[in-house]
Specification:
Elements (H helix, E strand, L loop, with lengths): L2 H11 L12 H12 L1 E6 L4 H6 L2 E3 L1 H10 L4 E5 L2 H10 L4 E3 L8 H4 L3 H9 L5 E5 L4 H5 L3 E3 L4 H6 L7 E4 L2 H11 L4 E2 L12 H10 L4 E4 L5 H4 L4 E2 L2 H10 L4 E5 L5 H7 L4 E4 L19 H10 L8 H20 L3
Helix pairs in contact: 2-15, 4-5, 5-16
The structure holds 1,3-dihydroxyacetonephosphate and iron/sulfur cluster.
Length: about 325
């Protein structure tokens, strides 16, 4: 396959679909390619266990952005979803940022198209815009500051009380932060397909079966789920809480990938993934799970698919991300 054919295939299907020798030791090959190309792998906690185990850094959205900002590597392979790799590229315009499968999107990000958001924003000319990092570069470019689930409260509180705010795109995180800060924000009506399907009834049943268990939940969950939680936080905050808590059993209400690190960091504790409505494995993010070891190997070897974006959008999106990183650093986050 020549360069043009590879390019066309990536443009058509979102990744390079080449045969890989099934006897290849993918772990060893990925290590070799990383060293050869001065590349690093950044992985979100929602990735498969194998991918987390080969990563140079595993973190939540804030940790990943902070690590991406500082790295000296020439190439960043992002084992996560598109908006995360895009954020890394916005911060590192001269580095090659690879996403193993360009189809790894995000329902939350997709719920907020820039054209619709531009019209929405125009209805509130006095408002500043706080956008959750789970959005496209186009939305970031329309925002005053970005936040993640670990710094949203600090970011919102960084505005004077009298400053009206729009919070986009996650209505569940927005509602939760409104309650915590006592601010009445205008919310965009977006949500995450994974965090919206947890079953209140089945979590109550689990709690009856394990009365000593603590319920720990991500703030992307709906309000009636968060009301049951003993602790609410970003994926990193949930992990830290579970490790340091004196409790030894947890009902974990977020994407099930986080259980790998929880089990690694606290092997003697019992982590129970919260069940979803119905019989599907809906607590597994289908976007995150598009990445595989094989696709990571191919992406590193052929240096594609690469994240690109128009420079004017990148520059506009960079400002609110930098503001977020500055506020987070000042808050010691
Ligand atoms: P955090 O990484 O901030 O915990 O957010 C979770 C998430 O949904 C990422 O897509
Ligand atoms: Fe998006 Fe939800 Fe998947 Fe996170 S878990 S990437 S918010 S769809």
């Amino acid at each position: 396959m020549n360069i043009l054919e590879k390019h066309n295939q990536v443009a058509a299907v979102g990744f390079l679909d080449v045969n890989v020798n099934p006897r290849l030791d993918l772990f060893a090959e990925i290590e070799r390619l990383k060293a050869e190309k001065n590349a690093i792998i950044l992985a979100h906690y929602y990735q498969d266990s194998d991918i987390q185990d080969i990563a140079d850094y595993i973190g939540d959205s804030l940790g990943l952005a902070q690590f991406a900002e500082k790295t000296q590597a020439d190439m960043i392979l992002f084992a996560g979803v598109h908006f995360m790799a895009e954020t890394a590229k916005i911060l590192n315009p001269t580095k090659k940022v690879l996403l193993p499968d360009l189809n790894a999107g995000c329902s939350l990000s997709d719920s907020c198209p820039p054209e619709d958001f531009t019209a929405f924003k125009a209805q509130y000319p006095d408002h500043k815009v706080v956008s959750y990092v789970n959005c496209s570069a186009g939305i970031k470019a329309l925002s005053d500051v970005i936040c993640t689930s670990s710094n949203a409260e600090f970011i919102v509180n960084s505005f004077p009380k009298e400053q009206p705010l729009i919070f986009a795109p996650d209505k569940n995180l927005g509602r939760y932060i409104s309650l915590k800060t006592g601010r009445d924000m205008v919310l965009w009506n977006g949500s995450c397909m994974v965090h919206e399907v947890f079953s209140h009834k089945r979590i109550v049943e689990l709690k009856l079966r394990y009365p000593q268990a603590e319920i720990i939940a991500h703030p992307e969950c709906e309000a009636h789920i968060l009301e049951m939680a003993n602790f609410i936080g970003s994926t990193t905050a949930l992990l830290k809480y579970a490790v340091k808590s004196t409790c030894d059993t947890f009902i974990v209400v977020t994407e099930s990938g986080i259980l790998h690190q929880m089990q690694k960091d606290a092997p003697h504790k019992h982590f129970i993934p919260a069940p979803s409505n119905g019989t599907c494995a809906c607590n597994s993010c289908p976007h995150m799970k598009l990445n595989t070891l094989e696709k990571i190997y191919i992406a590193l070897k052929y240096e594609t698919p690469e994240i690109t974006m128009p420079e004017d959008i990148r520059l506009k999106a960079l400002q609110p991300i930098q503001r977020m990183l500055e506020i987070s650093a000042a808050a010691g986050l």
